[in-house]
Give the backbone structure.
Amino acid sequence: MKNILLIIAFVAGINIVSIAQVSVVVNKSVTESANAQKVALIYSLDATKWSNGSKVVVFDNSSEASSSFYKGIGKDLLTLKKEWMKKQLTGEAKAPLVLGSDADVIAKVSSTPGAIGYVKSSSVNPSVNVLLELK
């Protein structure tokens, strides 16, 4: 019986991780708000400037937050990668730099004016602004 309870607890723990809350974070220089649709446009590289005219610098995250993020904005990563490659080859936009951890994303976003990225909500710290939370 004890083993069954441990297995149930283990499975429940995996489900909690898979639905982790994700925060879209921006550099402190970004003072606007956005919804999931606007973030999807930014990550599709269709919106390349903030409302004040400054350049949007997009960072991607290869951590476990990735699948929740793309699901939250209604996009498929493989499809986006194809769009990024096409836009990069035609010179329309530069594909986002992929960073390996939430800490790397926070560091790059906080030090790059106009930057946007995403991390698990538990990784957010005061060096960045939260633009949007996705569940």
Remarks:
- The longest helix spans residues 2-18.
- Strands lie at 22-26, 57-61, 97-99, 115-120, 129-134.
- The CA atoms of residues 5 and 105 lie 37 Å apart.
- Confidence is low (pLDDT under 50) at residues 5-18.
